[in-house]
Predict the 3D structure of the following.
Amino acid sequence: MPALRIDQVVEQLGLAIDRVMGEGSLYDKDLAALAILQARGDLIEAIFLVRAYRTTLPRFGNSTPIDTGAMQIERRISATFKDLPGGQVLGPTFDYTHRLLDPSLLSGLTDAPEVTPSAPESTPRVTDLLNGEGLIEPDFGAAGEELNQPVGDLTREPLEFPLDRDLRLQALARGDEGFLLGLGYSTQRGYARNHPFVGEIRIGEVEVELDIPELGFAVSLGRIKVTECQMVNQFKGSATVPPQFTRGYGLVFGQAERKAMSMSLVDRALRAREFGEDIKGIAQDEEFVISHCDNVQATGFVEHLKLPHYVDFQAELDLIRRMRGEFEARQDETALREAAE
């Protein structure tokens, strides 16, 4: 059998590519495809390879915040408003397909569907509509001065709990999709005070720009595909804050709706203390969630158990033998005492 080419993996395994780029935190489709081939399809191993390569790359600066409002949309849906400005765009999804194997793929007769992006335009977010009526908490940075605050980088500094939301979102964006999916599911089963609505999910390309101080303006570095999810949650208010909706947020590389939704659910759950809510679910425990969501760290710790532990085991074995001998001696002593009586 001829070996798979990098371009074949990129074109035919797009969602696997997107996951490796997202959890590897490096946007490069060819490198993600190379990692998948080298890892023989083990996505966590591929993510590990990408992260290891990422550490060798120089850093030239920080890009300006991407504007998802100006996204070149491929898919956009809302579960809160049927008729919204810009309209619903179903786009590529498995949501409306039958979960049946397609035999035509065995003969290679079916090509992957091509997605034609819509014309770029500024499409208002659903949360902007709610914000216009003051029915939802202000967006992060709405006060203006917060936009100029430095953003942390968990890849360069060790984490110290409690975390600010910027670092939490970074950790969740790199977190394991399955782990976050389970946590998000738990919040729907009563293990947090979440009653969410999908305000909007949008998938498409956005411009990435870098400020050049010598030029005095930002220059475009190119476009990347991202998935953004804004989850709208209930909040009954407090003595100082009126009843309003609150936000859960998810943003990931590529097309990854399930990951973005799970991230937004967990993000909102982790804001429990911010809203004075009781901590009743594991998804609300920041240290537990952030410390265990990274699949590369989890894999390393679990798989190290395969390494030789001969000395440790012999010590445990000797201890068990000695304790067992002491136990049997006590049993014999008790039996003799009972017989004498």
